[in-house]
Each structure stands twice: as C-alpha cells, then as structure tokens.
Amino acid sequence: MAAPGGRAAAAAALRLLGPARWSPPPRAHHPRGLAAAAAVRVVQGWDKRLGTEVVESEAGTLRVARRPAAGPPAGGGPRREGPPAWLRGASEQLAATFLPRGYPDTVAPGYLPYVKWQWVHHCAGSAHGVLASSFLLYAVGLTAGAIPTAGALNWVLKDGLGQLGTLVFGKYLGHRFDMSAKGWYLAASAKLNLGIAMEIASFAQPGLFLPLASGANMVKGLAWMCGGSTRSAFNVSFARANNIADVTAKATSQTISSFVVGNSLGMGLASAVGQDVALAYAAFGLCAALHLGSAWRCLAHVPLATLNQSRLQLLAREYAASGAVGPPEALAAADPVLHLQPHVPADLEPRVRVGERLAGPRGPLLGGRALEALVAAHRRERYLLWRGADGFHVLFHRDADVAAVAQAFLHAELLHRDPGFAARDAAGQLACAREAAGGFLRGVEAAGWKVDQTLVDDAASRAVWEVTGGADARERKEGGS
C-alpha cells in the first residue's frame, strides 16, 4: 500500500496529465507593443481533418488550443453524421489529383462544370479514335498476318503528308485562334470527327487508302492544333491566383484519365463491331454526337476576359441598357460560340461588320460624296461608322487604339437602341459617344476584362484618311502662321 504522501503526489501528477484545462505559463518577457494589446487572435488553417489552431495573446500571454469538434445542433436534436472517413479521404485525394490547389478559390466560377463536360468530350473522342485506328489497320493489311512493305510505306506517307498540311494551316490561321477561341475549339471537334470518319472509310475503299488516310491525318492534325491552342486560352481564363501552370497540369491529368476510360470503351466497341462498316459508322455517330454536344456544353462555362468583336458588342449592349457591365464569368453563357471573325453571329443585334473594304466585289460601299461627308464628320475620331442595309459598318484608322474601338461599338449600340441619341446630328452623336466611351472603358476594366488590346481582326483593312479642306485646314493654317 502506498503511503499517503505518495497517493497525493500521484493524484497531482494525474491532474497535470489529465484533460483539465491547460493553464498559461508564467508571464515571460515580451516586446513593448505586445503587452499593450488587449486580445490578438491568429487563426491558422492546417488540414481539414485536423481543424485549426488558435493562437491568442492577452496582455502578452500566449496559449495554443485545438478548435473543438462540432457538437450537436442547437435545441438538442440529433447530430448529423458526415460521410465516412474513407470516403472523405478518397475525395480529398481525387481533388488533389484533378483540381488545382486551393479549389474553388483559385479558379474562376464555372470551372467544375467545364471540367466535367471536357472530360466527357475527351472520353468520347478517344473511344471512336480507337475504333477508327482499328479500321486503318484492317485497311493497310494487318489481318493478312503482317503488314507488307507497301503497307508500311503507305502508313509513313500518310503521316508525313498529314503533318505538312497541318504546318500550312498553322501558318495562315493560327493568329485567329485567340480572336474566336470558342468557335475554333468547336471547329476542332468537328474536324476530328471528320478525320475519324475518313479513317473508317479507308477500309471500305482500300484502293484509296493513301489519299483518305493522309487527308484524315491532316484533318486530325488541324483539330489537335486548334484544340490545344484554344484550350490553353481557356486555362488562362480560369486561373485566378497566378496558377496557370497548376491549372494546365491538372488539365493534363484530367485528359489522361479520360483517355484511359475512352480507350477502354473504344477497345470494347472495336471488338463488338469487328469489320462491319455499317456498325462502325453507327457507333461512330453516337460517339461523334456525344463529342460535339459535350464540347458545346463545356464552352458555355469558359469566362474569356479578352475583348473580341462579339464580347465588345455584348458589353456595349449591357452598358447602354444599365450603365454598368458584369465580369467575364457573368457573360460566359451569352458569349456566342459560333463566331469565327469576320463573320457576325446571327443572334447579335445590331449587326456590326468590321473591316470590310470600301470597294468590295459588289461595288463600293459608299459613294464619293457620302464617303467625303463621313470622313469630314469623323475628322476627330479614329473610326468611321455608317449604317448600311445589312447593319452597321465600321472602318478603323490605322492608329486606332482600344478606346477608339470601344467607342465605335458603343456608338453603334446607342444608334441602334436609343432614339434620342439617333435623333442628334452627326457632331452631337460623336460628342455623346466620346463622353460615354470613357465611362464604358473604365467600367469594363473595373469588371476584370483585359483592356490592354482588343482582338478585332481588321488589321489588313485599316485605313488612313485626312481632311484637306474646311475648318480643320484653316485651323492648321492659322496655328502654323
């Protein structure tokens, strides 16, 4: 039996080691400013499973405490059980593998729906790609036992010719990808489906293997160029914390996982179809519909912040109606997908045509006197705007900057929607448009749009004009004398 003194010492030790509240240590030396603080709290997050740690300073005394676990809800009701630990752990691992760090705070709204539809898009494309590859191999003679020398040569030639076609395409059209990224992405999906259809057709027409396979490889190369280039613009639009590399890396992980599933589905399709071309085209049709549909759905969530023609028109419409503009994510769903400049989307009103030549194939857009009057009215501006039978036409000066481009689109929108504005004379309209354009451009920049440049494809048709007579000439003459 322990002595009474020993029992008292053991009880004291248990009290120290037990769940009793920890008491602060004796007051230690601290800087002068810390002692004056009544209460300073620093909350530092560690891990979702560990909770947070709270560091408090009250009159120079520090203590560390674990955040208590959530208790039962107020009123004494039953406590809601969360998902099991293994499910939480699995979801955290999936998020760490496929979502950028800090999601959702480090990406733009709409990122997760975009990723889901993008994953379906790649999965469908991979599935019918495997199916088409099997028919290419059938066409070149794999079922005969081994590919003969002629077949191997055809295979090499179709790759080489296809790659040359891709280089030519990139030379002439690569600069347009930024201007209409959504439209080119959808066009890339259509091109990929066309190339796969041509590969399946090579089996039905073995004598045309080289032209069909080469053409298919070229079309697919164009699709990969368009898709990869525009997808990089999408990644930039979603990055919100200088994390474009992380967003791109996670996009690669998402694509790889979709390819793994898509390749497995494609092998199953190829095995079920065999060499039946009719069945192959039926399976291809289902995959192509899913491929294009998911591409369309994912594009509705991409918040591109660059100012191309369609987005400038939508922003001008919003500003003319309410005096304010929303951020890129608010405009993502309304941004037309099928807008391959210089073509104007049919659902955008007013129809603003930019960069058309004054002397077109159907004759001059403006007569000599009308052009002279138009230039005289716009002598202080860096654009010409006039109304035609099919909408508004805009011609920019060679030195037109972002402010001039924004003013031109706002000018057209006000002419179309505001009867009071349209009732003014030309000088009054331009003065009002110039004044409104300043607030419009400031609002666009404040909403998060990129205003350092515009993506309006009219560089080849910009013009230079000057007024050689009238009031401006007299002013220059008087100023120089």
What does this structure look like?
The chain is mostly helical. It has 2 domains: 98-299, Growth Hormone, Chain: A (Up-down Bundle), CATH 1.20.1250; 307-480, no CATH class. Helix content is 57%, strand content 9%. The protein has 16 helices and 10 strands. The strands form 4 sheets. It has a 3-stranded antiparallel sheet, with no helix packed on it. A 3-stranded mixed sheet has the order 5-9-8, with helices on one face. It has a two-stranded parallel sheet with strand order 4-10. A hairpin with a 2-residue loop joins strand 2 and strand 3. Helix 4 runs antiparallel to helix 9 (277-299) and helix 6 (181-204) packs antiparallel against helix 7 (209-238). The chain is globular and about 75 Å long. Mean pLDDT is 78; it is low at 10-38, 46-54, 143-147 and 473-481.
